Amino acid sequence: MTEVLKSRISDELLSLIGENLGLYQSLLDVRKKHDLELGLMLTDPNARSETRRLDNGDLEVLLTFPLDNNYDREDGRIWVIDRFVFDGKDKTFRKFTYQRDVEYNNLGANKVQWRQWRDLLRKEATVSNEAAIEFAKNAIHSYSRPVLTPHLKALAKAHQAETQAAEKGDENYSAYLAPLHVGVWEKSNLQVKFSDPRNHITRVERDKAYDIIFSYVVEDNDPETQGHLWVQDKFTYFESDVPIHSSRKITVAHGSPQNEGWEAARRLFYGPDGKTLSSDMVLPIAAAQKYMTFFPKGAFEKTPDFSEIANKVASQQSPEPKVEMTLA
Fold it and tell me: Reduced to 3 states, what is the DSSP secondary structure of residue 245?
């Protein structure tokens, strides 16, 4: 059975795409040349990455984005699917395996027009091997990975350890989760949703260093409120098995309603300048290093772990603490 990891496009990958637009330049050129009323919707909630292990052991990464003039899929939409293949260790890009597919979802009233657009893009929005190599080198490794049960179990273990330290009055225990229990959380209607399927983990390569970034959804407890924030915790590694730097930031999610509400919610976590995180929300390096000890070695290697890490985590401790937890 083919192993597949699916996830939304992370904000980190969106930033890297913005810095490496060569892969999508032909789409933009065709749009301008033929005055197409279609936009590359990078922040659409249905944009996604898929990573799968092929039968020969290679690793395939698919990036899927919609081309559309609105957020309604039912009136017609074109999908652009870019495919990259790496060797089994996720180190070497198979240079001549890149391919682009352009598909129409066969919906909407004007099917003839949509099919003409699809055929035009298939013919003209091609990608050179050089552009594919450059994108593979600089951006594609930062595809987002879903937060799986093993990660939630590690989070639950950290929560359990912090609770026990607090019960013992251990003031020297550097807690990862404590900042998410105090301050604004006790005075607002916001809540971190640790089991939300939109949560993801991103690994960003930077020369000899790399960042591991956890992104968790923060929503209003009122189900009628649309949009959300992200809590993004970054752990930086440099030729070491432990992080050497850590940071936390709160951002308004792409696609959230563009109004003062979510920006005001974000500012609750910051000082008067809106840029400096409030002291009770800071993620100390000691807390970050302690938190990462709850994961098995190799949990964040470049090669997606699929079921391997899940088995390692499951065998580490028994019984496992419950993963159902809310921080309000």
Answer: strand
